Amino acid sequence: MKEDFLHYLWKFEYFNTLDLKTTSGESITIVNVGQYLEQAGPDFFNAQIRIDNQKWAGNVEMHLKSSDWYIHHHENDPAYENVILHVVWEHDVAIYRSDNSIIPVLELKYYVAPKTVINYNVLRSVKSWLYCENQLAGLDQFLLRHWQERLFVERLEQKTKPISNWLTQTSSDWEAVFFWMLSQNFGLNTNGDQFFAIVSSIPFSIIRKEASNLANIEALLFGNAGLLDTEKEDHYFTDLKFRYTYLLQKYQLTKPILAPVQFFKHRPDNFPTIRLSQLAVLWHTHSNLFSKICATNSLDSMYQLLQVTASPYWLDHYHFDKLSPKKNKQLSKPFMDLLIVNTIVPIRFTYAQSHGKDNSQDLVDLLQYLSPEKNGTIDKFNYFGIATTNAFETQSLLQLKKEYCNKSKCLSCAIGIEVIKNI
């Protein structure tokens, strides 16, 4: 048993509350269980408890054993001076405040139905991938849908944090932040950090000034990526290298020292050469892309804005100075879907929030028209009975796995709570 089980029991009052008594025999009436804040300090804040005829307002702390109070050194922490009730599974020692007054104790194990404890132990006893994997197929669909909506919003809220930091760095330049985010996602998992470093090391004012000249934008991106550091006979390569040297001098820039971009284990269409060229073409075509993205709610219009092809040189190249069979290097629909999910949706959510608006339902509706993402996590959920038909559902399941399943937070999860009630 873990303390989170006690938090779950107290938060939802899943125990017999009719005849509660402290370990010293005083009657307990719960007026308000308090606010559950998963942070340093007592577990529940601003609770209201009536002990005998005295009403108390303060905090509630929980432990498996009363003696855990001393193991965690709460006796030396002023944050615990306002604890009005110590809720434990097993009472083994009296606990005193700094003024030597005793803290009332509720020994919870005498008030919890045996079936609730059994269900909890069953849930947490076997795990191959998820604790609740064998119960997923029979979930109530209304509960699942409601929980998925909450998970999706949580995921968006988490993604607003780096966006907010970037806005601070750029003095609220939304176009610059959008360019940074696009660049990071163009690099995918392998080159995302490198692509972000490449573009963020170039003042966006320069990107704006040079956006009308595609070759100059490519020179800046390829140069900062370290892809122009060698010597080659290729005319396109030598032109980019000449432009890059000139631009560094023109703007008094210093070439950054960055981690090298990776080609290994990438399909050729995801090579950094191709993705950097496509990114340059996109920004050359739409220097005010964020404004255009905000002006449309049409998925087809978003596709049209993102529909770009790498510059002509890359029609028959994947590497500098090395010919390959001709192929049009256009952004594919799955890749554009990835950009919509990981760039457009989060920044539109953050932008709406900055104006005091909630557009989360609009974004849910948008992602329901996108195909579901394909990865090992989603495949596993499908195997255990949660089918996915769109990107909204896959995004919510990725949040579920990362923030709840991986952290064993079953008792903070609507699915885990439902499973314990119905095993």
TrEMBL record:
Any Pfam family matching the protein: DUF2851
UniProt cross-references to InterPro entries, sorted A to Z: DUF2851
Domain of life: Bacteria
Protein name, per record: DUF2851 domain-containing protein
Species this chain originates from: Flavobacterium ammoniigenes
Lineage: Bacteria, Pseudomonadati, Bacteroidota, Flavobacteriia, Flavobacteriales
